[in-house]
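Long-time lurker. I teach an intro course on protein structure, and each term I like to show students one example going from raw sequence to a predicted 3D structure in C-alpha cell notation. This year I'd like something fresh instead of my usual example. Would anyone be willing to generate the C-alpha cells for the chain below so I can use it in lecture? Attribution to the forum is fine with me.
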Amino acid sequence: MRERLIQEAARIMADEGIKDYLQAKRKAAQRLGAPDTRNLPNNREVQEALLDYQRLFQADSQPRRLSELRRLALEAMEFLARFRPRLVGSVLEGSAGPYSDVNLHVFADTAEEVAVFLMDHDIPFETQERRLRFGKDDYASLTVYRFTADGEVIDLTVFGEAGRREAPRSRVDGSAMVRAKIEQVRALIDEAGDSAAV
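-- Reply from a regular --
Happy to contribute to a lecture. Here you go:
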C-alpha cells in the first residue's frame, strides 16, 4: 500500500499540478481507499517517484518544459541581477512540469526596493506572504512578489541581506534549500544542451 501511495502521489503531482506534498499524499490515500492511513510516505520518496514518473511518461515533454523554464529563469535572474537572485525549487531540481513556476530568492535591504524596481520597469505584480522554516523550529514570514513573463509565473521571495547566509529548509527533506546562482543555472542549461546534442 505504501508503494502505491508513493506512485499515486507522484502521478497526482505530475498530472494535476498539485505542488504541496502533503495534499498530494492525502489525495492519493483517499483515491486508494485509505483516507485515514497514518503510514504516509515521506516527501523524498514522492519526489523520487515523481522524477521516475516524468522519465517514463513525460520523456518528451518534461525535459523540453524544464529547459524552457530554466532559460526563462536565467533571463529573469539577469534582469534582477542587482538583487543577487538564486534559483530554487522544481526548476532547479529538475522536476518542473506543466504547472511549475520559476521560483527565485532575491536579497534587498527592504522588500519595497524590489517592488519599486518592478514598478520602475512597468511590471505588474501581486504581493503575497510566505512562511518558511529556518533551523529546527524557527519560522519567518517573507514578502513574495509574483509576476508573469512570457506567459509564465515568476515567484520572487524577498530576503534581507542576512538571508544569503542561511537558506530556508526544503519541503522535500528538511535540509537547507539548494540555491543556484546565475552561473550555475547557465551551466545547467549548457549541460542539458550538450546532452541533447549527443
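Some talking points for your students: The helical segments are 2-16, 21-31, 43-57, 61-79, 90-93, 111-120, 182-197. The mean pLDDT is 91.
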